[in-house]
Design goal:
Largest sheet: 4 strands, mixed
Strand content: 15-25%
Number of strands: 10
Strand order of the largest sheet: 5-6-7-8
């Protein structure tokens, strides 16, 4: 099959996680479009709003020269960005809840300032098109693997790289997560240096990144191939059924379809954004 990125199946850590959590969730987040607007749909909640803002600030910092990254207090970035998620836009029930989440964001950014570690070291960016790194995972099957890695530290002594993913939630990443296999494949195929190590930085609770064992490259490829084929088959036969007939993973988006949510607006990713109605 000839390569055609517009007809290809695009996969990322997020979409693959959706499918593994619940095929119906995958469909509602990654396939379904509102027939009236032509947009995909999403539900905004406070943890998501906080994560979006903190990751956006980290991305902005990463673009600056090493000696300029922390010259501007990160609190200033937060104050400038917060209005984008304030009130209903961030899914906050009230001002008290919003203040609690904003304070959590400030504490995470303060943690970075007080323990900058890799933040003040050299970093690299993966080559990308329109800001999204991707490569042809399988030309034969017309599958593309894409995604943004939060931070790639350049290790000058070994001319290698260190993949770092920032976590803003309270839970640790599952040992069975495919995030690192996906990031390993992206970093290997989109730049020439060896991936020496990878870490998660739990900004709520840790002063430095916690290194985790890297998967083997061939094993990572096999893992993603397996789930990619399942997703492709699901799209071919249009079968994405919740195995439980409705579960925790897909219930919120089902509520949107059932008219049990309030429309907030269009997100920066061109999604129709909703918040769930309070009972």
């Amino acid at each position: 099959m000839a390569k055609d990125k517009y007809k290809a199946l695009w996969l990322s850590h997020s979409s693959i996680s959706d499918f593994l959590n619940c095929p119906r969730l995958y469909y509602l987040k990654n396939v379904y479009k509102d027939p009236k607007t032509g947009h995909k749909i999403t539900v905004m909640k406070p943890p998501l709003a906080l994560g979006l803002i903190v990751h956006k600030i980290i991305e902005e910092v990463s673009k600056k020269p090493t000696d300029q990254r922390l010259k501007v207090p990160l609190k200033k970035y937060l104050e400038e960005s917060w209005p984008k998620v304030s009130g209903k836009k961030g899914g906050f029930k009230n001002q008290t809840q919003e203040n609690e989440y904003k304070e959590r964001g400030l504490k995470m950014l303060k943690n970075i300032e007080e323990n900058p570690g890799p933040i003040i070291n050299k970093a690299i960016k993966l080559k990308s098109e329109d800001g999204l790194p991707y490569y042809w995972f399988s030309e034969k099957d017309n599958i593309i693997l894409c995604g943004k890695i939060d931070w790639i530290e350049y290790l000058e002594k070994t001319n290698s790289i260190h993949i770092i993913d920032f976590k803003t939630g309270k839970n640790e990443e599952s040992s069975g997560s495919l995030q690192l296999p996906i990031y390993l494949l992206l970093a290997t195929n989109l730049q020439k240096r060896k991936v020496e190590k990878a870490s998660y930085w739990y900004l709520n609770s840790s002063k430095k990144p916690a290194e985790v064992k890297l998967p083997k490259l061939d094993m990572a490829h096999d893992q993603i191939t397996n789930v990619a084929k399942r997703i492709k088959l699901g799209r071919q036969i249009n079968y994405f059924k919740c195995p439980k007939g409705g579960c925790f993973a897909c219930k919120d988006l089902e509520k949107v379809l059932n008219g049990e949510a309030e429309y907030i607006g269009v997100s920066g990713y061109n999604q129709d954004t909703y918040i769930l109605n309070e009972k």
